[in-house]
# Entry
Amino acid sequence: MSSLSSSMNIAVTALNAQSAAVSSISNNLANSQTIGYKSTQASFYSLVTGTSSQRNFTGGGVIANPAQNIAQQGMIIGTENDTDMAIDGDGFFAVTTSTASDVFAYTRAGDFFPDDDGYLVNSNGYFLQGYPTDEQGVVIGNTSPASLEAVNIHAVTGTAVATSDLALQANLPATAAIGDTLTTSVEIFDSLGVAHTVTLTYEKTAINTWDMTVSDPVLSSDGTTVSGTTTPATLTLTFDDGRLDTASADPFPIAITGWTTGASDSAIAYDPGTSGLADGLSQYAPGNTDGDVKIEVDRVVQNGVRYGAFYSSTVTQDGLVYANFDNGVSYPIYQVPLGTFTNVNGLEAISGNAYLPTTQSGTATFVTAGTAGSGAVFSGSLESSTVDTADEFSKLITAQQAYSAASEVIQSAQEMFDDIINAKR
# Structure
């Protein structure tokens, strides 16, 4: 009788274990398309209620222990959203449930998009965390967890770049007479992105010598309104066999103050070219054949940029979030760190495809993406679910067969009990 009772108890544990297995399979299949989801596998362990030997077997049945393989890498797939992010490595994005929360959860679900306020939030409602940076990508302040904040790509609305470098690739005609004056106009930008025009005047003072002066700027929009004051100075240019001479090759400072636009003062370095070369200013016979003596400008190079509005953001492999503007300017505004753990599979799963640290996982260590095994961040990509549907269906069939077998054991034991009871009658 005790053996029959034991067999029924063992069969019940089998039913419970296979039910747990079917539950994990069901959850895997339900999340086969969930971004960043890690599949759960049911491991089975045998139970023994007492000392077991060949002559005295006291089996206790089986128990299922479903465990999620969080460390498994999912396939990275491309998307059309630049703020989608995938991690190729062991790291996790730090996220919070609100912009004001300081309790971090960790996720691989990188389907981030800007909400109405510009905060990057994923489809599960978690806000991406990052360190604010300056325009060179250097973190502002320290890199402690307390310095993390919700990434807001609308924190900057537009930008402009003031001209700080200016160069011309041009030829001053060797046929010009001493005393001839030639001019050319170049466009520069103040710190507010307003375009101005300055006139460069070249006067030939000797056979191989020219003096250059710079006029006060005027607004490019009308070409007449004086918009600032240029500090008077003269740059002497000497040439040797048509090439710029060594003595005059240093960058020439152009200072402009009192911008009527309200912009900051400008300090512009004018580079006449490389000594001994004709890569900047040169003095050769004119290329034109119309008889006019004039400066021939091939190219003007200056690094200023007009005002540009924000239009998109991208993320580099090391986790720098760049703001991109329609004037061609891009610069980083956040550094997104990745959290790493000593035991990834010790994390506790919570709703929204995210995890919390436990004593088994250890606390998070924040590192720059691409270091310490954290993995690179790929913009415009997502990590797909690690669920293999074909494998899950195969496991489902196996679990169903095992469940049916355990049911048959219970039914057979019940019939044997009935036979014993009938025999006593």
